[in-house]
């Protein structure tokens, strides 16, 4: 049985814990031994993106220590998975420490969730059930930095009961961009409103993505527009299963229906 470590990410840990729980539920259902190293912290992406490579070095070292001994690391975020895979090596080189460079090169591989499900487990149908109209937003880092391609939509297409609707302008950025949303708020909101409009045009009930940062941004706009749309992380959809009704439950339902008929 593969042993993987869940890199839950800062945003999920503090604001969206149900996403981390959904990843564990899903992977355990598929026979994966999932661990959660409590020593994990930020991957260092905010520092690197702002040019503070030296300040990110302790975070890279901590990541290596926290996930040592796992076969792989799974992140429900294309952004953070991309940071570890592409930025940790840059931070190590900048540090001038050959030992850190070797440690980064030898670290367990990091996968975005859809990559791990399809590329490593070889699974497209994860046994999920979600009877709703869904549209999918491919987040920038998952699309451009990781190249996850159609993996998330292949997984969604295999979900029983789910209707996947095409999103106009799908590959356009939603406008969040981390600190970009703070430093360039007006531009960020304008981009987010474009994305929200496209989402509403689909007629979907639920907007799904692989990064809660983007869902937080677009979801906030959809909420203010009183669109009635929900946003859900891919992991939360894939963790859903069809309710199992026991024989006793069916019998109780029949008695309830019968009683209602007598009362009427």
UniProtKB/TrEMBL annotation:
InterPro entries, sorted: Cys_rich_dom
A Pfam entry, by short name: CCG
GO molecular function: oxidoreductase activity
The organism's place on the tree of life at top rank: Bacteria
GO CC terms of this entry: cytosol
Domain Cysteine-rich span(s) in chain numbering: 6-84, 134-218
Signal peptide per UniProt: none
Full protein name: Lactate utilization protein A
Provenance organism: Pseudonocardia autotrophica
Lineage, opening ranks: Bacteria, Bacillati, Actinomycetota, Actinomycetes, Pseudonocardiales
């Amino acid at each position: 049985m593969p042993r993987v470590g869940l890199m839950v990410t800062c945003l999920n840990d503090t604001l969206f814990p149900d996403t981390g729980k959904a990843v564990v539920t899903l992977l355990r259902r598929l026979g994966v031994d999932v661990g959660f190293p409590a020593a994990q912290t930020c991957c260092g992406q905010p520092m690197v993106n702002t040019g503070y490579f030296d300040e990110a070095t302790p975070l890279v070292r901590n990541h290596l220590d926290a996930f040592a001994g796992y076969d792989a690391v799974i992140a429900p975020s294309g952004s953070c998975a991309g940071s570890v895979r592409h930025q940790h090596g840059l931070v190590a080189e900048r540090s001038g420490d050959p030992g850190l460079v070797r440690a980064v090169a030898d670290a367990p591989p990091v996968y975005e969730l859809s990559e791990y499900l399809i590329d490593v487990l070889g699974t497209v149908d994860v046994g999920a059930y979600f009877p709703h109209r869904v549209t999918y937003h491919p987040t920038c880092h998952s699309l451009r930095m990781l190249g996850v391609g159609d993996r998330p939509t292949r997984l969604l297409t295999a979900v029983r009961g789910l209707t996947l609707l095409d999103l106009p302008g799908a590959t356009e950025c939603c406008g969040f961009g981390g600190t970009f949303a703070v430093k360039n708020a007006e531009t960020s909101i304008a981009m987010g409103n474009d994305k929200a409009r496209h989402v509403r045009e689909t007629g979907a009930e639920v907007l799904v993505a692989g990064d809660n940062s983007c869902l937080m941004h677009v979801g906030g706009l959809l909420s203010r527009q009183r669109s009635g749309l929900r946003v859900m992380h891919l992991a939360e959809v894939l963790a859903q299963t069809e309710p199992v009704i026991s024989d006793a439950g069916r019998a109780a339902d029949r008695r309830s229906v019968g009683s209602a008929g007598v009362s009427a």
